[in-house]
Design brief:
Layout lengths: L1 H15 L3 H8 L3 H8 L7 H11 L10
Helix pairs in contact: 1-3, 1-4
């Protein structure tokens, strides 16, 4: 699940043309946290998934789908 959320986050972020730093600014999370998340090193909480989805302009479900 960690890898799935991280991969989806990276894919959507890149499709939107955002850097990790830009997404960090939009989401209120640190760039280091996003880097760790995208590499499958972090376990995102429900709130974190929601914040990232909101910042990317997608549904939280988009981050959870294979």
């Amino acid at each position: 699940m960690r890898k799935l959320v991280g991969d989806n986050c990276a894919r959507i972020r890149k499709a939107r043309g955002y850097t990790q730093e830009q997404l960090a600014d939009l989401s209120g999370l640190s760039q280091q946290y996003l880097s760790d998340l995208e590499r499958g090193k972090r376990n995102p909480t429900v709130v974190t998934v929601y914040e990232i989805a909101l910042a990317l302009g997608v549904s939280h479900l988009d981050l959870l789908q294979p």
